[in-house]
Each structure stands twice: as structure tokens, then as C-alpha cells.
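Mods, move this if it's the wrong board.
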Amino acid sequence: MNLLVVGLSHRTAGVPLLERLALTNGEASEMLADLMAQPYVDEAVVLSTCNRVEVYAAVTAFHGGLADIGGVLATRAELPVNELAPQLYVHYEVDAVRHAFRVAAGLDSMVVGEAQILGQLRDAYGIAGEQGSAGRVLHELMQQALRVGKRVHAETEIDRAGQSVVSAALAYGQGATAPVAGRPALVIGAGAMGALSLATLRRAGAAPLFVTNRSHARAERLAELHGAEAVPFAELPSLLERVDVVVSATASPGAVLDAPLLAGAGRDLLVLDLALPRDVAPEVHDLPGVTLVDLELLSESLSTTAEAEERAGEEIVAAEVEAFLTWLRGADVAPTVAALRARADEVVEAELRRLAQRCPELSDTARAEVSHSIHRIVQRLLHQPTVRVRQLAASPGGEAYAQALRELFDLQIPTSEINPADASEVHP
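Not the wrong board. C-alpha cells:
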């Protein structure tokens, strides 16, 4: 089975393209269904965050899987594949594992070390589980990635060195405006980013805090947790006149805040747009008295975390990648070993039947003793080769040893159970 990651992030694409590909949970489920309908995709997980959209897949052939995934992403982006392709990154096998672990550890995030990605990856894995699109390979990859992410955060100080997207945006915005301490602040959106925004603003000393959401019940629950006041969404225009800081983080497909709505602020107003697609219309940048920080601006200016903590995280990831590959190679050779033992059992049973026909005078006790002896001989003969092939399979290029066994003993294994290096491929 070939592991493949295809996607785009703040490193390879601009916010406008990321906006076109951003997915709600429902849309992620639809994309998973589209992916699983493709001929070369056996398993899939789709991760969509504020700065990345990527597909983790187990495919039966590299080029065929790449063409399938690229086609689904291009359809979502409403672009020809050849226009989307230059902005995609592709990671295969060991690089795919390394990428997954780095993402989970926050090492590939816009803000290196941010911990929110762990929850986002867990949600993506959960959706794939509900859809039945994560099989043996991706279940193991996702579970190990989540574990590695937790390990990096637990064993390094990358959490402290890094920031959340919210704290980074707030720090950037305060470079152009007055500190937020003691200033009234509003959060629009009651999802995970909204909750993080309220917590961050509260720690920064902003007060009083307000939260609004189209679902007022969700806003009330969030407000209760963070000592804020929930305000009906219909009162957003009047509420904007009472606050100095606005953080917008909804899942709305269109702009929530536009220039006419904010033009009458009449004072310094800091607006943080942490949504993808964007919640704030671009022309708000030109309004006097309004400082707008969005993901596009943030990605251009963000500094990285402390180098020592990042190096420590990378060392953990490197060790964990090797451990995962050892498991993966061993798992790939298992069907071949099982088929070899099954073939041996078939041969033994056939010979025992022939013996019974040629020597009917043998007693049941004698037949049982002969059967036991032959099985022991065969198992002892197979023991060392099968142990050795598992060991060799755990090394780089180990698939060749399993392939040699299949050819030597003419073992027929379903293509879904092996890594089909010789499968026909469709080039994109």
C-alpha cells in the first residue's frame, strides 16, 4: 500500500485559493465520498484548517492516486488540474509519514508550535472514521501522528515558544494599535477558534468581552465558559459601535463584516479575521481608524519559534517516522508470510492424503504421528526464512524481499493486501 499526501498550505498557496478549497465538516464528508469513488484510492482522510487543505491517502499506485486526488481537489477549487498542480505539494511513503507527524506536532504550522492542529487532525480522523474511509494504514498513521504530536508538546517547550494563531494575530495587531488590556472586545463565531479567541483576549486583559453567533445557544454556552456576554447576532451592527477589538472566526461562506458596517466606527478599531474563507471584506483595509489583520497578512510577517525547541521536535519526529516505517514494512510483508505458510499447509495436507491412499494399512496413531512430524519439519524449515524476511522488510527497500518470496513460490496475494509496485499507473 502506498501512502500519499497531496495538499496546499500557506507555504504554497495564497489565501484566495485556500478560501476556495476550505471545507466545513459536511463538505469534508462529501470530498471523502468523492475520493473513495476514485479507482486508485483505497483510504482517505481530509484535513482542512485555516491555513491548509490536504488529503492523506492509501493508494494502489502512485501516479494513479496522484491523478485521482488532484482531480478531486481541482474540481473543488473549480480550476483545471494543470493550474492547480503548481501550488500543490506531494509527499510519498516516508515523506508522507514525516509530513503527517510534523503537522501533528505543529512544526509545519503558520505559527510553529501551535497546539490547535492536534484537535483539527483528530476531527479530520473522526470524520474519516464515520465515513469508513480510514482503513488499516490510515488508522495507524493518524493514531501515531496524534501520539507523536502530543509527545513533541510534552517533551519540548514548543508550546511556550510557539503561539496560537489568535495570540500571534493579536500581537501583530497591537503593534499598530493600543494594547487590548481594558478595552471592550467582541468575538464573532462560537466554534473552536471562537473559544480560543475568547480565552486569549481574556488572558490579555480585554474587558468586557462579548460573543455573538448565528446560533445564540452556542454563543451563550461559550460566554458562560469565558466570563463573556452573549449578544444576539441581529444586534451585531450596534455591538460594533461599543467595542475596540473584533475577532471574527466563523464558518460563513461569505463576508460577515464589510466596509459599510465598519465605516462608522469613529475610533481606533482592531479587527482580526481568522476565518477561512475570510469573514472581513478586503476593502476594510482602507477604512480610516481600522487596523485589519487577516491570515494573508499574518502569514507574510510571522516569525518562527525558538530554534532549539524546533530542533528537538524534529528529532522526535525523525525517530518516530523510522518506528512507523518499521511497522508499515512489517505489515506489508505479513500477507506474503501468511500465504507462504498456507501454501506449505496445502502441500502437507495433499501429501498426507496421498499417503493415506497408498498405505491404507496405517493405523490412526501412525497417521497422526506422521502428520505431526511432517508439520514440524515444514514449520522448522519456514521459521528462519519468515523471521528473516520480516527483518529485511523493515529495512529500506524491504518490499523487494517479500516480492521475491511471492515469485519464488508463485504466491497469489490480493492486490489490496500488498504494496503493488507493479500496478498499472495513470499519469496526471
